[in-house]
Amino acid sequence: MVFKGELLKMDSMERVVSLCKRRGFIFQSSDIYGGLSNSWDYGPYGVELKNNLKRAWWKANVYERDDILGMDAAILMHPKVWEASGHVKNFFDLKSDCKSCKLRFKASDLKDKNKCPECGGQLTEERAFNLMFETNYGAVEDKESVIYLRPETAQGMFVNFLNILDSRHSKLPFGLAQIGKAFRNEITPGNFTFRTREFEQMEIEYFVKPDDAEKAYKEWVETRYQWYLNLGISKENLRLRPHGKDELAHYALACTDIEYKFSFGWSELEGIANRTNFDLKQHAQYSGKDLRYFDDSTKERFYPYVIEPSGGVDRATLAFLVDAYYEEKVRDDIRVVLKINKDLAPVKVAVFPLLRNRPEIVGLAKKIAGGLKKNFICVYDDTGAIGKLYRRQDEVGTLFCVTVDVQSLEDKQVTVRDRDTMLQERIGIDKLKEYLNTKLTI
Ligand code: GAP
Fold first, then answer.
1. Which pTM does this prediction carry?
2. How far apart are the first and last CA of the chain?
3. Which whole number is the average pLDDT over 178-205?
4. DSSP letters of 157-222?
5. Parallel, antiparallel, or unpaired: how do β-strands 305-312 and 265-276 relate?
6. Which domains are delineated in the chain?
7. Contact (CB, 8 A) for 343 and 423
8. Count of C-beta atoms within a 10 Å radius of residue 33
9. CA 258 to ligand 1 centroid distance, Å
10. Disulfide check for 42: which of 47, 208, 220, 431 has CB 3.0–4.6 Å away?
11. Closest ligand 1 atom number to CA of residue 152
12. Rounded to the nearest 5°, which phi and psi values hold at 350?
């Protein structure tokens, strides 16, 4: 019997936050010490989802293209990098502190510049607050040893431009891609993992001839928008928002944000910017190295322009979670189901014995799970009644549940249940791998 449940799309962030904790996707950092605010740890399902997302990004941008190379730069870089990039001078927010409750506010968020929105106390004058985390490099703590945790991965690619040209002889247009941690001492972090002080970015620096920049910029906006749609984000929850001239970062000629409609409003998942030749020129000036590209055909040397699609791993992970979260009415019951794309789903298959007090059934189920584990992310579970086991897997988005029953011992078949349709099919154990392979590669 098949129940086509009524879909109830919930957009409440609270329910997703609760699911994340309940099922081990995301936990508060340092929980047993009362938690470090706005800092989050990815648990067993969260890390799988996040890794799948990064893998999908890397596959689409590095493996499936001929013009992009991957790299992984160090988080700690020469402090001059951040002088050249403009972060030391320009990467700050204006903030005010409350003299009574000591809370700190971003000046642009304040309606009344003098009065604390929390306790009504008096606010200090606005002061510039650099968002980069400072630390000391090496054993001596002095002015010379000051170094920054990178606030973006991008600069690691600009400072390796020459190394890539020398080692790979790449021809324009070509790009570099990188995924890694970035740190910003945000004044107003919040909305779960949306704005945090430690986060992961997935960035591309795509180098082009200056005359080709406009066209490449438009293409990248479209390509990146499609990537989210291809992985299943609902079209009505995704939009492109070109920046006004007054919003542009100090290095950008143009920028378009890809935004997701969270319950707290339309918010940026990724920005695609035309960074011109700003960064290469700056690093050439500060390092004294010639970072111009030599064009064999015209015999000209010039600084390429850069188109930069820059996305947040944590923000994308959150958007995919929220978008996939459903509460579905099945008879008189509500099932929570994560209808997440098959490539992103943390677990692909779960195997259960229908009767856990029958050693032959348990043994066969374990054997089947052991075999599947070689090809798929597969879990074995016998810690509850079948209905409970199904619900548990639905909540984390497991695509298929395989049940071994008494009949399986006789006919060598198992019941395979599809997460979304809840349709059940009897499949021969010897055909199971092929069946799942076909379903998972469509
Ligand atoms: N290299 C360009 C750059 O860093 P950005 O718009 O400042 O541009 C790019 O950041 C992406 O990094 C954002 O679209 C967002 O997804 C992510 N991001 C930025 N700050 C973040 C924060 N505090 N918490 C989580 N993600 C953040």
1. 0.94
2. 25
3. 97
4. HHTTHHHHHHHH---SSEEEEEEEEEE---SS-BTTTTB-SEEEEEEEEEEE-GGGHHHHHHHHHH
5. antiparallel
6. 6-76+152-321 (3.30.930.10), 347-441 (3.40.50.800)
7. no
8. 8
9. 12
10. 47
11. 4
12. -125, 145
> Is pLDDT of 7 > 80?
no
Going by C-alpha positions, the residue among 343, 363, 340 that lies closest to residue 351 is: 363
* Model pLDDT for residues 330-355, shown as the tens digit of each residue: 888 899 999 999 999 999 999 999 99
Q: How far is the CA of 248 from the centre of ligand 1 (A)?
A: 14
Ligand 1: centre distance to CA 10 (Å): 26
Per-residue pLDDT, 128: 87
Q: What is the pLDDT of residue 63?
A: 98
pLDDT category of residue 2 using cuts at 50, 70 and 90: very low
Cα 154 off chain centre by: 16
Q: Which atom of ligand 1 is nearest to the CA of 269?
A: 16
Kindly tell me if the per-residue pLDDT of 3 is higher than 60: no
The ligand 1 atom nearest the CA atom of 312: 16
Ligand 1 site residues, Cβ closer than 6 angstroms: 152, 154, 184, 186, 195-196, 199, 201, 203, 268-271, 308, 310-312, 314-315
Q: How confident is the model at residue 1 (pLDDT cuts 50, 70, 90)?
A: very low
* Most informative mutation of 268, 282, 306, 318 for ligand 1 (most atoms within 8 A of CB): 268
Q: Which atom of ligand 1 is nearest to the CA of 315?
A: 16
Residue 232: left if φ>0, alpha if ψ -120 to 50, beta else—which one?
left
Nearest-angstrom CA–CA distance, 184 and 201:
12
CA-closest residue to ligand 1 atom 8: 310
